[in-house]
Specification:
Mannitol-specific EII, Chain A, alpha/beta, 6 strands
Length: 151
């Protein structure tokens, strides 16, 4: 599985309008809902926020990966947001976040969910990838950068 198999430029928002963690998560959930990928955006928002309350998904290197499992989607779905300014996400490394990846899957699709989390994390370990993302000016550019680095 490639991230570009579950992502489209329509599910990438740059810049995000929200400037705080909870609102950013809501904005990305709404983006997935607007694309017709969720049956119940409110249920998904609640499950992702519940997961976030157990432990922050700010994993370091400027990345946060809020995620959750919900019967309100049929398949693993993904949205990406770029905050207009670095965002406090209570990250493990204490640094602000400048790239947010939301992943949501049905409860019975644990394998693909974990694979996507691992792929995102691996890409963000690459400085060249992070630098390219920081320079991107559009959703299409972000999508193309992901596609190039996954190849």
């Amino acid at each position: 599985m490639k991230l570009t198999d579950i992502l489209s430029p329509a599910c990438i928002k740059t810049p995000l309008e929200s400037t705080e963690k909870i609102a950013v998560i809501g904005e990305l959930v709404d983006l997935l809902g607007q694309q017709g990928l969720l049956r119940d955006s409110e249920e998904v928002r609640n499950c992702v926020l519940e997961r976030e309350r157990t432990r922050s998904t700010g994993i370091g290197n400027g990345l946060a990966v809020p995620h959750g499992k919900s019967p309100a989607c049929d398949n693993l779905v993904m949205a990406i947001g770029v905050p207009s300014q670095p965002l406090d996400f209570e990250s493990k490394d204490g640094q602000p976040v400048n790239f947010v990846v939301l992943l949501v899957s049905p409860p019975d699709q644990t394998g693909p969910h974990i694979q996507a989390l691992a792929r995102v994390s691996r890409l963000m370990l690459m400085e060249k990838f992070r630098t390219a993302l920081a320079r991107a000016n559009s959703a299409q550019e972000i999508y193309d950068i992901i596609a190039r680095h996954e190849a």
